[in-house]
Write a structure and sequence with these properties.
Layout: H1 2-13, H2 24-43, H3 48-73, H4 80-101, H5 105-110, H6 112-122
Amino acid sequence: MWRVLILTFLGMQCFACSGGISSYEEGVEAQSEIMQEMIGILEDVSDEASAEAAVGDIEALGKRLAELAVQFSQLPQPTTVEMQALVRKQRANQQEFQNKAFPQMTKLAQYESLSDAWTRAVTNLQ
């Protein structure tokens, strides 16, 4: 479970981008939205059946993260100063995400198929 938590946390600190974005900042926002959607899916898991139903949704979001990673690779690298500014700006969002995500992480430990889907999804973070 800690591995998943670490991957999730690192994912929130990584920068990716979505369709049509033109900056790392837009990418950070797009990635944050997807990660928030993933947590929203976990919030709806209450038993094995809902966990199994959530697997497809998590995997679909993982594909979106992979698409973002491809687009991210096409952006020019930000300078160190720009990267530091992005990290400072996103610090509050990261804390909010962690506060919302940590209670849901126990569900990944409870349902192996859900944990596997989550791990595959967050490995798409770049």
